[in-house]
Amino acid sequence: MLYPIFQNCRLPLRMGMALLLASGSCGLASAATWCVNPGGKSGCQASISAAVAAASNGDTIEVGQGTYKEDVTITKAVSLVAQGNGQVTIDATGLPNGIWIDGMAAAPGVGVSSVLVSGFTVRNANFEGILVTNASDVTLTGNHVVDNNRALDIADHACPGIPAFETNEGDDCGEGIHLMGAAQTSVVNNEIDHNAGGILISDETGTSRGNLISGNSVHDNPFDCGITMASHGPATSVIPSARGSFGVVRNTIAHNISEHNGFEVPGAGAGVGIFAPFPGTTAAHNVVIDNDLRDNGMPGFAMHNHASAPSPAPAVNLDGNVIVGNHFSGNAADTADAATPGPTGINIYSTTVVRGTIISQNTFEDETVDIAFKAPIGHVSAHFNNFSVKGTGVDNMGTGSVNATENWWHCPMGPGGGGACASVAGPKVRVSPWLGSPFGNNGNQ
Question: 59, 298, 330, 340: which has the fewest C-beta neighbours closer than 10 Å?
C-alpha cells in the first residue's frame, strides 16, 4: 500500500515564503511506505520484487509474515523490513540468490547506496543468500541466512552456473553473505549457518573498504571459513580494463562468534581468515577485534599468502593487519603448505614479506600452538597476550622474526619455566621481558 506522500501547499504567506527560499519549491515528496503480503491482500504487493520495482529511492517496504519464493534484486536506495519476528522467509530454491543488492547495474563508478535489509530468513539459494556488489552504506541486520550455496559440487570444487564476475569460488558459492566491491557496509547481529561458508568480503568488482562485521553468530558452515576477507582476481569479464586486484582494506571484524566452521573437510576453514593468495592481491590494514573464535576446522585466525611475486610481478600486500582482544579455543591445525604442528589459535603464513602485523591482548585456551608464524622475511609483533597452559605460545617456523615481549606465558617464570608454563619454539623470537601475571590482572592493562 502506498501511503500519501505529498503535503498541501496552503501555508501562511510568511511561512510559505520561508520554505520557498529554503528549498526552492513547494510540493516536495517525502518517502513512501509499501506493503507486501502473500496474495497481495489489502492493496499490498504480492511479491517483494514487485514492491522493489514500484518503490522510489528512500522508500520503505514492509513485508508481512509468510514465505516468498523469489530472488530479490535491489538497485535503488530502499529499506526492506520484515514484519513478525523472524516469520518472513525468502525461499530461493533453484534461484541464484535470495537478495542481491546490485550496484553493478548502475552507471560505472556510481553503484547503489543507503539500503537496509532487516529481519528476514533467507535460505536455499544456489549461490549467496545475500549478495552485495558495488554498493555503499548498506545495512544487513537481524537476518538469518541459512542453507544456501546449494549449487556447490564439493567433489569438483565448483559451483556450476555461478556468474562470471565471481572469479574465485571453489569450495563455496560465495558463502551465506558476500560483500564484493562494498564500502561502509554494516553486517550486524545476523545468524549465518549451514551455508558452505559464512561471510565473505572480496574485491572482484571493486575495492572493499571500511565495512563492519559485528555481533554476528556464524556457525556450522562446513566448507569454508566463518568470516573471510579475501583479495581475488578482478572480474575482467565485466571490467576489461582491470589490472591487478582492487583490494580488501580497512575492514573491521568485531564482537562476533565464529564457531564450528570449516570442519567437513580437513583444512576447510578458519574462524576468521585474511587471504591475499597470489601476486598483485591486497588484504591490508584490517582489524579483527573482540571475537570468540572456537572449534573451527582450521586455526581460529588464519592469514595466508601462497605465491610470492618474483620481480617484476606485482607484490602481495598483507601489511598492517591487527588481531586484538579475541578469545581462541579448541581450533584445529592448519594444513597443506601452511601446516602447523597441532591445533592452533593464530597462523600467519606467507611466501613473501609480512609487515606491520600486530597481535595483542588475545586469550588462548585449549590450543597446541597459540601463535604460529612462517615467512621468509618480515616480522610480527605479539604483546599482552595470555597464552595456553603447557602449549607453545609462539612458534616461529620461518626466517622472519617475532617480537613477543610482555606476554603472559601462564606462569611468572616466563616461557619454558616449567610446570604450566607455555613455551617458545623456533629462531628469532624475542620474549623478554614478560608479564608476571595474566594481562588484565593487577593493573596489566
Answer: 330
Residue 440 has a pLDDT of 87
Per cent of the chain over pLDDT 70 is: 88
Residue closest to 424 by CA, chosen among 370, 378, 363: 370
d(CA 130, CA 274): 21
Task: Copy the grid coordinates of residue 2.
Answer: 502506498
Average pLDDT score, the chain: 90
Q: Are 231 and 200 in contact (CB under 8 A)?
A: no
Beta bridge pairs of residue 347: 302, 372
Yes or no: is domain 29-430 CATH 2.160.20? yes
In this model, does residue 210 exceed pLDDT 80? yes
CB atoms within 10 A of CB 266: 12
Q: Quick count: other Cβ atoms within 10 Å of Cβ 214?
A: 19
Query: HSE on the CB side for 293, CA within 13 Å?
Result: 39
Q: Which three cell numbers stand for residue 412?
A: 611468572
Integer Cα distance of 357 and 208 in angstroms = 20
Helix (H) or strand (E) segment spanning residue 20: helix 13-23
**Where along the chain do the CATH 2.160.20 domains lie?**
29-430
- The residue among 105, 91, 152, 102 whose CA lies nearest residue 127 is 152
N- to C-terminal Cα distance for the chain?
A: 56
For the CA atoms of the chain, what is the radius of gyration? 24
Q: Which of 252, 344, 243, 335 is nearest to 291 (CA)?
A: 252
CA dihedral 63, 66, 68, 73 (to 10 degrees): 20
**Nearest CA among 357, 356, 348, 394 for reference residue 375:** 348
What is the arithmetic mean of pLDDT over 358-383?
A: 97
Q: How confident is the model at residue 11 (pLDDT cuts 50, 70, 90)?
A: very low
Amino acid at 210: G
Whole-angstrom distance, CA of residue 25 vs CA of residue 405:
66
Any residues with CB less than 8 A from the CB of 313 and at least 6 apart, and which?
Answer: 279, 280
Q: Which cell numbers hold the place of 207?
A: 575495492
- Report residue 20 as a C-alpha cell: 520557498
Q: At 33, phi and psi to the nearest 5?
A: -115, 130
**Cα separation values, 189 from 127, 144, 192, 217, Å:** 22, 9, 10, 7
